[in-house]
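Figure-free illustration: sequence to structure, shown twice.
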Amino acid sequence: MKFIGKYGEHLVLSQLLKLDIEAYLAIKSNQEDYDITVVLESSRVLRIQVKTTDLYNQNTNNSISGVEKRYDFLVLVILDKNTEHLFIMSREEALALKGSSVKFSCSFKQSGVSKIKPELEKYRDNWLTLTGA
């Protein structure tokens, strides 16, 4: 997919709006560390970083960079044929999962087939973490 990053950002934006969460695409000129701005009812603002990858790309473990940027929550979008998997976690959780690795790895190969790392499952569709933050 040519515009995979933009696809992921708009997918996350539409999910947030569907959940009645006020959200806007960030202005890249002065909000370069995140992609979406969320405004909660309490007038609290959250910065969302979206990272999108294709599970079946040529990368062995779908490593992504940029998780060390300044944001509040990471939404990881993994495209799997005709399905989208969304994982929502805090910046601290993303950094802990990344560990000492240079990049954040979100998959592995088993018998030549790409699989999503099991440690991501607890973050699947974890939208409530945003409103309960």
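We now fold a second protein in the same way, so the two outputs can be compared directly.
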Amino acid sequence: MIPKKTPGTTEAVPSAIPKSNSANFTALQAAFAQQGHRLSQVTSPNGTSTYWAERWGLVRYLPTLHDVGRFLVQIGGRL
């Protein structure tokens, strides 16, 4: 069965996600702050980064920048 695409899907949005992690993380934080969320990042010793968004004491784990961008769109934000 082929999944049906519905109007309003955000397939093109992840391409708007910055490619450079460190250079554009501040812009992502600002976009989340405009929506009332706090975006945080942890970089492991091997160089990989993970992210999480917080609001009202609830935390959403976001393993990649792709997930960060998708969640930003979901909460009504944009870069």
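Summary for the second example: Confidence is low (pLDDT under 50) at residues 9-15.
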